[in-house]
């Protein structure tokens, strides 16, 4: 008899890790270098938040301990002449990566998102599934992890529907990324 088939959970974990790895490599998310697919140099986007600070703890209100949902984000430096849509990915940066939010097809003229969007997304924007299979912001829970709030400028809109599988959505974002910016928080308060 052949090898036992991995569980659905194990297959999903492998697919998520592969997709996060693909997004990391293809869109310049790696620690070294800012190159996208085809090794083109990515433009840089500045990402900030009135509630988050680089290398500071994530306020508990934006974690699974709180009730605030997503934190507010702001960005600038999007290459206006080449950007057709934006995407946001919130993920963990340490072992066993998890994706906590995927928002895509954001109008490229948008420069900020408010706190706790819930279903009040920017017009035309869609959300993909997270690592836990849910659609929408899935608050981080691991207290000793780093969380990355990344904004991607894309050279087109994604064809994925609302609730698209995580691996498909991340691969599509990676394929279209022309600029990237990130705000990283460490641990949870």
TrEMBL record:
Domain of life: Bacteria
Residues annotated as transmembrane: none
UniProt-listed InterPro entries: PEBP, PEBP-like_sf, YbhB_YbcL/LppC-like
Stretches for region Disordered: 120-139
Identification of the protein by name: Phospholipid-binding protein, PBP family
Pfam families: PBP
Record-stated family: Belongs to the UPF0098 family.
PROSITE patterns given in the database record: PROKAR_LIPOPROTEIN
Coiled-coil regions listed: none
Organism expressing this protein natively: Thermostaphylospora chromogena
